[in-house]
Amino acid sequence: MYRLHGLAQSGNTFKVAFALRVLQQPCELVFVDFMNAATRSPQWRAELNPMGEIPVLDDGPRRLTQSGAILTLLARRHGALGGRDDDEQFEVLRWLLFDNHKFTSYFATWRYMKSFAPTPPDPAVRAFLMPRIENCFGIVEQHLSGREFLVGDALTIADLSLSGYLFFPTEESGIDLPARYPAIARWVQRLREVPGWQDPYDMLPGERIAPKW
């Protein structure tokens, strides 16, 4: 059985947990107290992930980190969600890289600063992040206009990756998807109807934390 280390606030953990549920793979969820700096501990990094990040997926003798790599392995191993031919597989990879480098990177950073950081967001940092978030969301909004999924006409790990942080409450980011990005909002709702979907705060270990700022 897989063991997935993470917590409820982590959209990157959610991506992997959602994929495992879609693939109907049993998984033990292990809470990581990220908010109280567990991943900064030298012992945690030595035992679980030297990069100091979650999620971490235990797969018998193998231990994997980085959600994009984990999703890729799961898709290949279980023969689903990875694209149906070479062209689709390349497109899936392209969107995973865009997500990890930009889409989730900017958005998740802003959400953490607004909801969970010990001090209010620095206005200069907000001014840096928001145009980048808007640009990335605009790209995805345009791409999803008139289509149901990011790649081809079926669910892939590209959808699971880019959507990972979009199921959390609007107040955590302050970005109202239906009002600003209707195509993305329809896509997110479509993913909620995929068998195996569950709200992150119901699926993952740890308690919900109210936004701070």
Describe this protein with a few key phrases:
single chain, 213 residues, Glutaredoxin, Glutathione S-transferase Yfyf (Class Pi), Chain A, domain 2, 4-stranded mixed sheet, 9 helices, globular
What is the tally of helical segments?
Answer: 9
Helix/strand order = EHEHEEHHHHHHH
- β-strand amount: 5-15%
The CATH class designation of the largest domain is Mainly Alpha
Percent in helix: 40-55%
Helix and strand composition category:
alpha+beta
The main pleated sheet reads as: 4 strands, mixed
Ordered list of secondary-structure elements with their pairings:
Layout: E1 2-6, H1 11-22, E2 27-31, H2 42-47, E3 56-59, E4 62-65, H3 67-78, H4 86-115, H5 123-144, H6 157-163, H7 177-180, H8 182-192, H9 200-203
Parallel strand pairs: 1-2
Antiparallel strand pairs: 1-3, 3-4
Helix pairs in contact: 1-3, 1-6, 4-5, 4-6, 5-8
Describe this structure in words.
By secondary structure, the protein is α+β, with helices and mostly antiparallel strands. The chain has helices spanning 11-22, 42-47, 67-78, 86-115, 123-144, 157-163, 177-180, 182-192, 200-203, and strands spanning 2-6, 27-31, 56-59, 62-65. The model has no long low-confidence stretch (mean pLDDT 97). 51% of the residues lie in helices and 8% in strands. Helix 1 (11-22) links the parallel strand 1 (2-6) and strand 2 (27-31). Strands 2-1-3-4 form a four-stranded mixed β-sheet, covered by helices on one side. It folds into two domains: 2-80 and 197-203, Glutaredoxin; 86-192, Glutathione S-transferase Yfyf (Class Pi), Chain A, domain 2 (Up-down Bundle). The protein is built from nine helices and four strands, in the order βαβαββααααααα. Helix 5 (123-144) packs across helix 8 (182-192). The chain is globular, with a radius of gyration of 17 Å.
